[in-house]
Automatic annotation (TrEMBL):
Species per Swiss-Prot/TrEMBL record: Amycolatopsis pigmentata
Domain OmpR/PhoB-type per the UniProt entry, residue ranges: 16-92
Entries under Gene3D superfamilies matching the protein: P-loop containing nucleotide triphosphate hydrolases, Tetratricopeptide repeat domain, Winged helix-like DNA-binding domain superfamily/Winged helix DNA-binding domain
Keywords for this protein: DNA-binding, Transcription, Transcription regulation
Family of the protein in this entry: Belongs to the AfsR/DnrI/RedD regulatory family.
InterPro entries: AfsR-DnrI-RedD_regulator, BTAD, OmpR/PhoB-type_DNA-bd, P-loop_NTPase, Sig_transdc_resp-reg_C-effctor, TPR-like_helical_dom_sf, TPR_rpt, WH-like_DNA-bd_sf
Residues spanning the membrane: none
SMART domains named among the record's database cross-references: BTAD, TPR, Trans_reg_C
Comp. bias regions, Pro residues: 250-264
Keyword Transcription: yes
Domain of life of the source: Bacteria
Name of the protein in question: BTAD domain-containing putative transcriptional regulator
Length: 929
């Protein structure tokens, strides 16, 4: 059965399937022939109706002839449809009932000829159901506009005729919603106004009827300069007089036309919902605040990545608060991120809401804006909840927002809907992953407490593998529940395999396939943004800042910032502190898969080389700013597209190391996996000074051993010497003196003059730690001579400092004080801040041991302030220890214990067991305070 549609887009269907007609002008020629079906249309009229007066083709008659020829071919598959050439023009022969416009007219004629109201109403409704939009969308000639206006007038007249019938049938209450929309669309139509007045009056809304009449009268006077018609004035007077003849007819409504129920469109309450107490409170607080004086419409936008639990939160909260929305709840899945591809157009969502609100086809205006207006009219002043789930962006949502402050709107989206904040004052609620306790509770609710308690270690692995993501936890729970006799350990083993983790998180359907759910967000990205997202999946560390991301991608800083904002808005990265971004573990796995699938090896390798160079160049520059005794490394230029961060002073260097240290270690592991041996060693070298200051010697040893293994096969004596020096220093601090001496002995056999000076310095410290301060003094003196020959101020300052310490340890306090005074002067002249702090600490030590406690307290407090400022927590602990001793010596036990408690905390962090045990004993023997 063929079907020709001219109302709305021009379409041809055969047995429900569309037939392609081709370009727009061809469809317009077809429309002209269909409107004059079974009658010839002169060629000149076809030209005028299709092309108008200003856009004529070079050969108009030839264009019509060509169009007809193509149409004949397209329509050849339809029986009893043909286009023929007649003397008067071209004629399309077909059953007029197959064309929606002609069927519309035929149904109107039949309805008006029918005397039975029920049957007439049915025919009018059938006619109006054909109305999908204005006639021949896209055809913009003067003829088309004229035909369109005439048909619009027929449609409006049909609506009014149908309304008159329904009023006669006593269906005024059901008509209120439709008439409200009609009154908004046709504010000067007095027939519509009269129908709305009558429906309001019969529905017991006399006050509203009076108010509406005065609005119409004012509008007519202001816009047309006339009074209401005599018939409308008479109706108003009869309403004022409560004319009994205006009462509704006493006849029951026909079956199937009962009043529309209050919409209850919410899906079922989610099972196994757990946690989110803060977020639930936030939603309720937003509603409570808006209900106060001067309240506004509540719009809460719940954002977060796919699988984070946005819809569960929205539905759980909605069901918990149903009593606050007595006028109903509307719900729509906008399919913003959906495997079917295209998001739902707002017009489709509005049409669904209108159906739920009782606006039948006859009441629907043809334009999208008019339908939005009708929707807002129907929800005005109602206490309703509107849940807009899975929204794509603010543009998709804006037409669905009511205009009434009585409504509450809850939105979920993977994108951060900042447009709603700026344009509508929305309350943004970003969801993060579940905490460990909440995640465990979710699994326990699905699997039972006994089962999860029986396997604590596999349970911990499952929780770690899901990383708090509710969808991942739900998939794991579903798979475990499907095999109640299987141990959780088997599923935990699958999750343990990082490469196959996303395969494990597959529940057998698209909605429960972690990879598929993430893909819907990925495929919505712009191409450049998608490329950056994939490269971020290669980043080995826990997070990344914009400068590192710019080097990774070889993009300008301004561009990468914009792209990272897009990814944050899409909930694929999280800006957990200003300028720093991280990915959820499972999102990172998916991103890395895309990098492997869509990129090539050269692109990935270049990106990682740039990132390595970024961290390496920035870190080695920062290490020198920390006044390292180690000579600088000549690196050459970084890879093209890499721009290391410019750090200018100790404070910024220390702050950078504090933040980036985990990334530096992760980068070292990646460089080792790539076989970039020299980068592995240099990254180890770059973190040593920072870790030394922090007293994190086991971490430094791990990094240095990784570096040593990487360069073992390199024939580079400078690197070998440097490795032995640093390993010797760290082994010394760890109390592994034999290992330390072995490495430092090897270091003595090589290295340039600065390297030899550092080896002497480190040997001196080793012997001091072993209790031989006399030998330590000899090595320090030799190191000082070498640093002086090199004119290396940092080395001279440090050696004078340690010489003062060794002399103090030997009890030669006067000599020690002299050396420290020289060290302090040199350090202050040349800005060697760390040595200034260390020297002040030694002077405090000397003063304490020579009975000058007040002076000792002054030195130690100055030292403490400096060491804290530069982040040297290792010696901060030592200075606090001595502060406690000084306070104890003058009888201030409370202050002594306060200093010792802080020192004890640092000793424990630094694994300085002997010192910690000593202070434990000191604190145990004194007052609890």
């Amino acid at each position: 059965m063929p079907e020709f549609r001219l109302l709305g887009d021009i379409e041809v269907r055969l047995d429900g399937r569309p037939i392609a007609i081709g370009y727009a002008r061809l469809r317009h020629v077809l429309a002209v022939l269909l409107l004059e079906i079974n009658r010839p249309v002169p060629v000149d009229e076809i030209v005028g109706r299709v092309w108008g007066e200003r856009r004529l083709p070079r050969n108009p008659r030839g264009a019509v002839q060509h169009s007809v020829s193509v149409l004949r071919q397209a329509l050849a598959v339809i029986e009893d449809v043909s286009i023929s050439r007649r003397p008067a023009g071209y004629q399309l022969d077909a059953d007029a009932g197959t064309v929606d416009v002609h069927r519309f007219a035929a149904l109107l004629r039949e309805a008006r000829a029918t005397e039975e109201d029920e049957r007439a109403a049915e025919l009018f409704e059938q006619a109006l159901e054909l109305w999908r939009g204005e006639l021949c969308t896209g055809l913009d000639t003067r003829w088309a506009e004229s035909e369109r206006a005439a048909l619009d007038a027929q449609c409006q007249a049909a609506r009014c005729d149908l309304t008159d019938i329904r009023l006669r049938l006593g269906r005024h209450t059901a008509l209120l919603a439709e008439l409200s929309g009609q009154a908004q669309r046709y504010p000067l139509d007095e027939r519509v106004a009269g129908q709305y007045l009558l429906a309001l009056y019969r529905s017991g809304r006399q006050a509203q009827a009076f108010e509406y009449y005065h609005q119409v009268r004012h509008r007519l006077a202001e816009q047309l300069g006339v009074d209401p018609s005599a018939s409308l004035q008479r109706l108003y007077q009869r309403i004022l007089a409560a004319d009994p003849e205006l009462a509704a007819p006493e006849r029951p409504p026909s079956p199937g036309l009962t009043p529309v129920p209050v919409p209850r469109q919410l899906p079922a309450r989610p099972r196994s919902f757990t946690g989110r107490e803060r977020e639930l409170d936030d939603l309720t607080t937003a509603l409570n605040t808006a209900e106060g004086p001067g309240g506004t419409m509540v719009i809460s936008a719940i954002g977060g990545s796919g699988g984070i639990g946005k819809t569960w939160l929205a539905l759980h909260w909605a069901h918990e608060n149903l009593d606050r929305f007595p006028d109903g709840q509307l719900h729509v899945n906008l399919r913003g991120f959906d495997p079917t591809g295209e998001p739902m157009p707002p017009a489709v969502a509005v049409r669904g809401f209108l159906d739920a609100l009782g606006a039948g086809p006859a009441a629907l205006p043809s334009g999208e804006d008019a339908q939005v207006g009708l929707y807002r009219s129907l929800v005005a002043d109602r206490k309703m909840l509107i849940v807009l789930d899975n929204a794509r962006d603010s543009d998709q949502i804006a037409p669905l927002l009511p205009g009434s402050t009585s409504c509450t709107v809850v939105i979920t989206s993977r994108r951060r809907l900042t447009g709603l904040v700026t344009g509508h004052g929305a309350h943004i609620l970003d969801l993060d992953v579940l905490g460990p306790a909440e995640a465990r509770d979710l699994l326990a609710r699905r699997l039972g407490n006994e089962r999860v308690a029986a396997e604590p270690r596999p349970l911990a692995e499952l929780l770690e593998g899901c990383a708090g993501l509710p969808l991942a936890l739900g998939i794991v729970a579903a798979r475990a529940a499907a095999h109640p006799g299987f141990p959780l350990a088997s599923l935990a083993g699958e999750l343990r395999d990082l490469a196959g983790r996303l395969d494990t998180l597959d529940g057998g359907e698209l909605a429960t396939n972690m990879r598929a759910v993430l893909s819907w967000s990925y495929h919505a990205l712009a191409p450049e943004t998608a490329t950056v997202f994939a490269l971020l999946g290669l980043v080995p560390g826990p997070d990344i800042d914009t400068a590192a991301a710019a080097s990774l991608t070889a993009l300008p800083a301004t561009r990468i910032r914009a792209i990272l904002r897009d990814l944050e808005s899409a909930s694929l990265v999280q800006q957990h502190v200003p300028g720093r971004y991280r990915m959820h573990d499972l999102v990172r796995l998916y991103a890395a898969e895309q990098a492997q699938r869509d990129g090539d090896d050269e692109v990935r390798t270049s990106a990682l080389r740039r990132l390595t160079d970024f961290y390496l160049h920035t870190a080695l520059n920062a290490e020198q700013l920390l006044q390292s005794l180690l000579p600088p490394i000549e690196l050459g230029e970084p890879a093209a597209g890499c721009h290391p961060s410019p750090l200018n002073d100790q404070a910024t260097a220390l702050a950078w190391f504090t933040i980036e240290y985990p990334n530096l270690l992760a980068m070292q592991r990646l460089a080792a996996a790539q076989g970039w041996a020299m980068s592995v060693w240099r990254l180890a070298r770059s973190v040593t000074t920072f870790l030394y200051r922090q007293g994190r010697f086991p971490a430094a040893l791990t990094a240095l051993r990784t570096g040593e293994a990487a360069v073992a096969d390199l024939d580079d004596p400078i690197v070998a010497t440097g490795s032995h020096q640093l390993l010797g220093a760290i082994f010394s601090e760890l109390g592994q003196y034999d290992n330390a001496l072995r490495h430092l002995t090897l270091a003595e056999q090589g290295g340039d003059l600065p390297g030899q000076a550092y080896t002497d310095h480190t040997l001196g410290w080793l012997w001091s730690l072993r209790g031989d301060n006399q030998r330590a003094l000899r090595y320090a003196t030799r190191a000082l001579h070498r640093y002086r020959s090199l004119n290396m101020v940092a080395g001279q300052s440090r050696e004078l400092t340690v010489i003062g310490w060794y002399l103090a340890q030997l009890g030669e306090y006067d000599k020690a004080r002299t050396q420290c005074a020289a060290a302090l002067g040199l350090a202050r002249r040349h800005g060697q801040v760390e040595d200034e702090g260390l020297t002040l600490g030694i002077l405090g030590h000397i003063a304490h041991h020579t009975g000058k406690q007040v002076a000792a307290l002054g030195y130690l407090r100055q030292a403490l302030a400096i060491l804290r400022e530069i982040g040297n927590t290792y010696y901060e602990a030592t200075v606090l220890d001595y502060l406690g001793r000084c306070h104890e010596a003058i009888g201030d036990i409370g202050s002594a214990h306060a200093a010792w408690r802080e020192a004890l905390r640092l000793y424990r962090i630094q694994h300085r067991t002997t010192d910690a045990e000593r202070l434990d004993e000191n604190l145990g023997s004194g007052p609890a305070s």
